[in-house]
Write a structure and sequence with these properties.
single chain, mainly alpha, Rossmann fold, 3-stranded mixed sheet, 3-stranded parallel sheet
Length: 233
């Protein structure tokens, strides 16, 4: 048995994105799993200000050089010993998060999706993953059931019958979802039966996790597998 996540991650390889595969994220998602990293702004300094700052900097650094050398000699031995320990700790932390960080390199676009919240560009009618939080899911099987949900599940079933794949990710632990909400009349038994129906009657794959990094990993892993199977790999 594996003792902790550090041991498990040693056996899980980072995913490799197939050439041409692009994740589609529904533009209406309020809290998106895939977010483009913002570029850091670089401050520009005028030449005049740059010249003045250099002169001031030189005078200050010259005076401090002597004191810094003395301090470096005293602390040099201590920092060398600490550096080795820090490297060991960093290696452990990197191993634990390795399988999650790779999701940042996933190519994706934001556009409107008719089915679900996540798909693959070009395969929107065959692959989809719906994402729900607790309040969303309770509405999904409650007040929205006859208005929206039944029709949507019918489309999902048609997609699966054509050789497609449908997933439902719930951003919560299963035990938390089963508790329901004080603001909803949906009982734990209704939740349980709805989940069973989605799996058996409609053929939907349900995944629970409150961690968005793991939800992202679920989306990408299954998109890669479906892409490869569809293209005969």
């Amino acid at each position: 048995m594996f003792k902790d996540i550090n041991d498990i991650s040693d056996y899980i390889k980072p995913y490799k994105i197939p050439d041409g595969m692009i994740i589609v994220q529904d533009v209406s998602e309020h809290i998106k799993l895939f977010v483009e990293k913002k570029k850091k702004k670089v401050k520009t300094v005028d030449k005049k200000d740059r010249g003045v700052s250099k002169k001031i900097g030189k005078n200050k650094t010259e005076n401090k050089n002597v004191d810094n050398k003395k301090a470096e000699n005293k602390t040099g031995n201590k920092t060398e010993n600490k550096a080795d320990d820090n490297k060991k700790a960093e290696n452990k932390n990197d191993t634990a998060t390795m399988i999650l960080k790779t999701a940042d390199k996933v190519p994706f676009i934001n556009q409107a999706l008719y089915n679900g919240d996540y798909s693959i560009l070009g395969l929107e009618n065959l692959f989809t993953i719906e994402r729900k939080m607790i309040s969303d899911f309770l509405a999904y099987i409650g007040k929205e059931r006859n208005i929206k949900t039944v029709h949507k599940l019918g489309r999902f079933k048609h997609m699966i019958n054509r050789g497609g794949w449908v997933g439902l990710i719930i951003e919560a632990a299963e035990e938390e979802l089963m508790k329901g909400s004080i603001y909803s009349k949906i009982t734990p038994e209704m939740i349980r039966q709805s989940l069973i129906s989605m799996r058996v009657r409609w053929g939907i794959h349900v995944y629970f996790n409150p961690d968005r990094d793991y939800l992202k990993r679920f989306v990408v892993d299954h998109a890669i597998k479906f892409w490869n199977v569809w293209h005969g790999k």
